[in-house]
Amino acid sequence: MKPNFWKRTGFYALVAFIVLQAIFPFYYAVLTSLESGQALFEVNYLPKKLDLSNYAGMLSQGVFGKQILNSVFVATVVVIISLFLAVTASFALARIRFRGRGLLLLTVLSVSMFPQIAVLSGLFEVIRFFNLFNSLWSLIFSYMIFTLPFTVWVLTTFMRSLPIEIEEAAIMDGASSFTIIRKVFLPLMWPAMVTTGLLAFIHAWNEFLFALTFLSTDGQRTVPVAIAMISGSSEFEVPWGNIMAASVIVTLPLVGLVLIFQRKIVSGLTAGAVKG
């Protein structure tokens, strides 16, 4: 047989293995969420019946629905504020020459390198000082510490790859800095903004430590903490069906966003990689 046949076979086998490894945990979570009773402890790889009682049980709880809305609110506000500040900051860092610009950009990026636990105690004191404890704004404030450096760095790199001639033409026409950002750069930066915005949304949607620390009531909690606190009628009974159903419910929006914006995501990830 030709060597190319074995190369193609090995390549597709590797791709199939990676896809299977990535998809199987979510598939098994969906499978488990459709089972109840003793069937939860049986190893099955194909659904025997469609039992939606776990989903009905979770969605019928008013608290869990409110917790989903809490996560949507927090993640959406974090994305909006992060992108607004990142676009304006990236314009200054990419287009305006000033002393210490490179050091400032490295400092912004280095902030995101600290683990969450390292800043938790100090951040807790700041939130308590501003009377934000048990408020969704405490999460928005704390999430900005980690999402803003990443969005600033990515958008700055992308803006540097844009031709400076389009900015000079806008300046010759009398456009102000904000007009240049709004009418010249924003239409060109959509792929990078979609990518960074989606990653910021996923981070805010999945974050657990700050949400567990800064929120104390069920009505204010977000979905990661809500899922972790699902309990049964006794300390020895774990409602795995409800936990899997809740996990599937909160994962589907992320899957949907990735599928909707997949073309923009690919363009954004490769934006600025090639110049000239």
The number of E-state strands comes to: 0
Overall radius of gyration: 23 Å
The structural class is mainly alpha
Instruction: Give the amount of beta strand, in percent.
Output: under 5%
Rounded mean pLDDT is 83
Task: Give the CATH level 1 class of the largest domain.
Answer: Mainly Alpha
- SS element count, helices: 13
Main β-sheet description: none
CATH topology of the largest domain, by name, is MetI-like fold
- Assign an overall shape: globular
CATH architecture tag of the largest domain: Orthogonal Bundle
Distance between the termini: 42 Å
Low-confidence segments? 272-276
Could you explain how this protein is built, in words?
The protein is built from 13 helices and no strands. Helix 2 (about 55-60) crosses helix 12 (about 240-260). It has about 280 residues and is mainly alpha-helical. The longest helix has about 35 residues, at about 60-95. It is globular. The protein folds into 2 domains: about 1-50, no CATH class; about 60-270, MetI-like fold, CATH 1.10.3720.
How would you sum up this structure in a few lines?
By secondary structure, the chain is mainly alpha-helical.
Name a few traits of the molecule.
276 residues, MetI-like fold, 13 helices, disordered C terminus
Strand and helix layout:
Layout: H1 3-33, H2 53-59, H3 62-95, H4 101-111, H5 116-129, H6 136-160, H7 164-172, H8 177-188, H9 190-206, H10 209-214, H11 223-228, H12 240-260, H13 262-270
Helix pairs in contact: 1-12, 2-12, 3-6, 3-9, 4-6, 6-9, 9-13
